[in-house]
Each structure stands twice: as C-alpha cells, then as structure tokens.
DNA sequence: CAGGATCCCCCAAGATACTG
DNA sequence: CAGTATCTTGGGGGATCCTG
C-alpha cells in the first residue's frame, strides 16, 4: 500500500488514489464481510454463520482492517458486557455501491469467465496458452 | 479460488458467484492493467510506462492471468514478428464498469479513508485500537 | 523488446489451542 | 462467545540475470 499522491497527468494508473480502493478489495474477505454487514449491525458469531468458511481468527483480522480504514465500527453491546457488535460506518455504507457493481457483474458474466478458464486448456493460469 | 456454485439461499456471501469477481480484483495489478487497456490495444512496453512501478515479469504474469480468465486477448502484431499486443476482450470490456465504480469511489472518499487511518493511532492495521 | 528462469521475502490465511 | 497466541504454508510480487 503506497498511498502517495502523484501529480500524474494520467489520473488512474500510477495515481494511487485508485489503488487505495483496489487495496480494500485485495483481501479475500473484506468485501464479503462488508456485504454481510449490509443490513445492520451483526455480532461475530452471526457473521461467521452468515458467511461460512471463515475462521474466527481471520474474521477478527478482517474486521480490524476494515475498522482501521474507517469502514466498520466496533461497539460493545449496551447491556451485556462481552457482547460485541460490528456495523458499517457512513463511509463503509458508501462502499456498498462499488461492491454491488462487482457482485452484479459476477452474476451476469460469471459463466463466461468459467467458460474461458476451461477453454484455456491448462489448469495453471500462468503457463502460456498451449496451442496457438 | 473455489468456484463452487452453492444453492445458498443467501445469494451473496457463501455464494461463490460473487467471489469469482472479487478474486479478479484480489491481485495488485489486475484492475490497473485492465484499466490501462481501456482505450485500445497496447504493447507491453507501453503498458509498463503507462502504469509505472510494475516489473516486466509481474506484468506478464498479470496478463497471463487475465488472459486465462478471458478478459484479455494476446495478439502477435500483423507485420513485425516479435511485436505483441494485448487488448481487452468483449468480456473484459464489460468489467470496466465495476472497476470504474471502485475507482470513482476512491476519488470521492479517499480522503476519508486516509483520515481514518491516521486517526487510528497505530501504524498496524491489525493491532486493536489503542484507547477506547 | 518479449518473457522465461531463479531466488527471496513477506504476509494473508488456515489450523489448533488457549484465555477471559 | 470474543479474542489472542503460535506455527505453518502457499503464492503474489519484487529483483536480477539471461535468451530469442
């Protein structure tokens, strides 16, 4: 993460402004967790069962990172002592838009991607295309 | 990457359909390279100087992966023998939308994120918030 | 110039076990 | 149940050198 602001004339590439957001999506779970918080505060247990396949440790790490970036807020439950809730901040909520755009794209074009993968002929994404 | 299709009632979280797109953004350079190909075919050298900060090796790897997923197409230049060009496929072009959404968000809310980072009081995103 | 081959490092992410 | 502490690993990504 190198959030240097450049004076690049080409405003999108070397410009780290955009990187900042891409980095937020560069974690396996960030987007998923944000999405899981979509409609209201959730406790860690709830999140884990909603999401599925994420360990307690990794969930905590993810939440910490989101918190660090101001997208998520951690609150101790009013009454109970060791009840915890996480919720989106106002900033976090604005990020749902882009996430949705990405998710929606997956639903529309997921098939094509998978088709391309199979058509590739290799299991390894890095090996140069076989024939042709 | 576990592109399993689930029968999840909750269509967004455990459902790997969305993951498929998120994974495409989970690389440091995928989005940047796609964006750099935005307005037409480009040769590797051009890409490198346009982007800045990406090594030849990593660029190749990135392009391979994008090619593998059907987002990018590799073509030998018509006349010259060892001239190469990469271009977006039709599928790849459809992905510019979501990418743009993410990039645009960065320009709008990047300040807030950086402010949050500084307000965090720690340099380490994973350490629990100091006071409070 | 394109891009393969090596070597190295770092860290996200998983598994497991333990505390308040 | 929330969270930390360890240990391990896979692979992305950087640097460097080498070839057609």
Automatic annotation (TrEMBL), chains A, B:
Signal peptide: none
Key words of the record: DNA-binding, Transcription, Transcription regulation
Ranges for domain HTH hxlR-type: 16-114
PROSITE patterns, per the entry: HTH_HXLR
Pfam families for this protein: HxlR
UniProt cross-references to PANTHER family, sorted A to Z: TRANSCRIPTIONAL REGULATOR, MARR FAMILY (PTHR33204), TRANSCRIPTIONAL REGULATORY PROTEIN (PTHR33204:SF18)
Descriptive protein name: Winged helix-turn-helix transcriptional regulator
Natural source organism: Streptomyces cinerochromogenes
